Amino acid sequence: MRFFSISFFVETGERGVAMLEFAIVSLGIIFGLLLTFDVGLAISQYMLLSQAGYEGLQLASVLPDLEDTTISGPEVNISATAAEIVACVDKLPSTIACQHFLVQQRIRSALQQINAFDSIGIKVGIPDITTEYTPSTAGTGVEDDTVSVQLEVDYNGFFLPALPLVIDIQAAYLYEDI
User: Fold this and answer.
1) Does pTM surpass 0.85?
2) In which domain, by residue range, is 84 found?
3) Is residue 72 in a domain?
4) Does residue 84 form part of some domain?
């Protein structure tokens, strides 16, 4: 006579089915957790890019003599030689849009600082940086001069395909000659 004979399965064939169900469900749960982690990293990278973009926009909105880009179009990924940087700093004639270059350098340095102090290990890639200054013109409905910064980078996650992250921010140009 058995007093403590408790069996969870009536038949021995059901034991294998339960193990198979457990394996399938546990793989789904693990994949769901990893996908959630990956989406969280993408959102974190988006926020870091946004913070760097706002730093550049803050500088662009108060820089004196920001070059008008309505004629030549927006300035994208400006690179400069040492001589051109010296000419910009000394306010000498230069072949590059100096103020836009300074804004883009501010964004790049903000991204480097973020990467240096990132405890999770998320490395923000090198984004395409576009800066634009648009003066107010009569008849367009725009009352103020505006500056805008756009950052574009692809997020390559563990499970997610290349996900384009685009930050597009705009503000009023606050600098006025006195």
Assistant:
1) no
2) 13-172
3) yes
4) yes
